TrEMBL record:
Residues 21-211 form the Cation efflux protein transmembrane domain. It comes from Ornatilinea apprima. Keywords: Membrane, Transmembrane, Transmembrane helix, Transport. This is Cation transporter. InterPro entries: Cation_efflux (IPR002524), Cation_efflux_CTD (IPR027470), Cation_efflux_CTD_sf (IPR036837), Cation_efflux_TM (IPR058533), Cation_efflux_TMD_sf (IPR027469), CDF_Transporter (IPR050291). The lineage of its organism: Bacteria, Bacillati, Chloroflexota, Anaerolineae, Anaerolineales.
Length: 298
């Protein structure tokens, strides 16, 4: 008797995950160190806040590496369905990091606004912020591409965080320039706008990862696509019952389909295998369970 399902590691998937982790870890560590040194040399409060945000990114990068390593472990007796549910848990950790960064940005912006703003000297802070925005933009594009290939909610959340950091650095630069040439309040106003954007992204990412953890079902468009695929198999007359549930970042699909009740067991078994193979080839589906019933017994 087999107690756990077979598991064959996908070398391409593992390579893409490693690539994403290297981009995230090395990129965040480099930015945190560069911003910290520049903030120390210049005394720039805006750059200090951005450096603190990058330090929080380094912390979540370490957690992400650990969490994704656990999520990629094969099924065992303790987790016979695999460890994929650890991935959205890591996504929630990244969401928490985004929320803390948004809180810090909002707190700093409000304090500066109440103090009447501050004229920020350009120079090294501006150069560092522009370079940081460029690096984060590259990280966003790279990680978002890998997230789409892997259908990874954690990497999607990480990509959103990179985009938020692009806006944080860009707004800090715009605010610093505005405080010099327009009004000192331009700096805190820009910071507050960025904080709102970070909170928005954190909310969207948190909602998505909570759905993965709490067993939410597929949306209607994906449900209809699953039904179409099942009914495309020769011999399947119709789908009369289906349940989908996220177990981690991918779906478990339970389908009841009607077939000709007079066909042989061998023919029905072949149809069953075809439907399972077709569904499990979908990027969004982890496992499929199929129950065939004769058409006259609905």
């Amino acid at each position: 008797m087999r107690w756990i399902r077979s598991y064959t590691p996908d070398p391409t998937q593992q390579r893409l995950y490693r690539q994403a982790l290297i981009i995230t870890g090395v990129g965040n560590l480099t930015l945190a160190a560069g911003k910290a040194v520049a903030a120390y040399l210049t005394g720039s409060a805006a750059l200090y806040a951005d450096a603190a945000n990058s330090v929080s990114d380094v912390v979540y990068s370490a957690l992400m590496i650990l969490g994704l390593w656990v999520a990629m472990q094969p099924p065992d007796l303790s987790h016979p369905q695999g460890h994929s549910r650890f991935e959205p848990l890591v996504g929630l950790m990244v969401t928490l990091s985004m929320t803390l960064a948004g809180y810090e940005a909002a707190r700093t912006a409000i304090e500066r606004f109440l103090e009447g703003g501050l004229r920020v000297e350009l120079g090294l802070p501006a150069i560092v912020l522009l370079i940081a925005a460029g690096i984060k933009a590259w990280m966003y594009v790279s990680v978002a591409r890998l997230a789409r290939q892997l259908h990874s909610p954690t990497l999607e959340t990480t990509a959103r965080d990179n985009l938020s950091d692009v806006l944080t650095s860009s707004a800090a630069f715009i605010g610093a320039a505005g405080s010099q040439f327009i009004h000192p309040l331009a700096d805190p106003i820009a910071g507050l706008i960025v904080a709102i954007w970070i909170f928005r992204n954190a909310f969207l990412a948190g909602r998505e990862n909570l759905n993965f953890l709490t067993g939410a079902g597929a949306d209607e468009e994906l449900r209809q696509e699953i039904v179409r695929k099942v009914e495309s198999v020769e011999g399947v007359q119709r789908v009369h019952f289906m349940v989908t549930e996220y177990v981690g970042p991918k779906l478990v699909v339970d389908v009841h389909a009607n077939v000709d009740g007079s066909m042989s067991l061998d023919a029905a078994h072949e149809i069953n295998d075809q439907v399972i193979e077709l569904l499990e080839d979908m990027a969004e589906v982890d496992r499929a369970y199929v129950h065939l019933e004769p058409e006259h017994e609905d």
